[in-house]
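Consider this pair:
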Amino acid sequence: MQPKMSFATVVFGGEVPLLELQARSLAKFLDPSLVDQILVLVNDASDVKVSRKLRDILPAYGPLADKVVIKTGDDLFAKPAVGHISAWSLDVLKLYLPSVLQSWRNAGWRGLSGWRMQQAFKLAAGGLTDSPYLVILDAKNVFLRPIGPQDFVHDDGRPLARFEQLGGLSTPWMSASLKAVGSELSVADITNLTQFITPFSVRTSLLRETVQTMERTGGPVQLQFLPKKNHPTEFMALNACCYDARGTIEEDFAPGLVNQVSLFLSMSDDQIDERLADAKQRDAFCLSLHSAVIGRFSPEQMQGFAETLVSKGIVGDEGEAKAALGRVAQLNKKRTAWSRRRAEANKAALSRNATSDSSIKLGGAE
């Protein structure tokens, strides 16, 4: 008997049109009988407004629509006691107020950093479902063929992952994550690790174990993603928890997750053209398309992606696909420019061999 799974996608307002494409792909390629819940987690300073927009796109989930549950950060994290100023509020002021005074609020939950908060959201999602497995997604993940538990869970029950060697951006992230789980290990003790991009399949029990371990060490998990430097990352924290508790990731993950076709902001136009052609021509598992990448699409690239969505049966015609991509590009003009600067800063830091110093501030993977 195949195990049931839940899915969780973290989304902000500018990604709603992209999430609708993901919803259509799930409706097309995922058997409802294999799904417990589809969690849509709103990481946006205007989460009430965005939640209303998400309810408008529920029909895109087709037969899965009644399994969709929309949640905000207030549902994920502990609320302060009524009538009292909580330690949570004081910590937010202490850690975040200086940056508020220097600039306008960020776009994430409660005006915090969207990129850092979405990591806390993904870890905390394990507390929202009783499913044994959770497949963590970003709105950028669009499936291109039928999917099921066999794509995410090994026959022996371990979630499937792609094993990688420690290096580059993962080195400072792992160093901070080991500290976050209170481990005495160092990065020198890490032999391999999972991929740190979505889709990411994980036991919900490991998500809960990781959050509990982090909170015993450093307090509420959402606070641990507030600092701009030396914070853990969600997937490295899961790896760190495995190493600290069991000395390996291989009790919790099995190699074998299929590679998706990913489009990163750091790619050249030729690389993007090649990936788009790859997604259209072969039996690709999933296309991961960052919202900021759409903003730099040429007309030809927009056409190529639209043709892929039509050929896979996700949308009815190319005009519908282009309209959705156009809305994403329009909503993310500022984010595209910011993401470009962040990608350039990461590349410069790596070229200086700075990743050996965990105090270096590095942005997220695109």
Residues 40 and 297 are 27 Å apart (CA to CA).
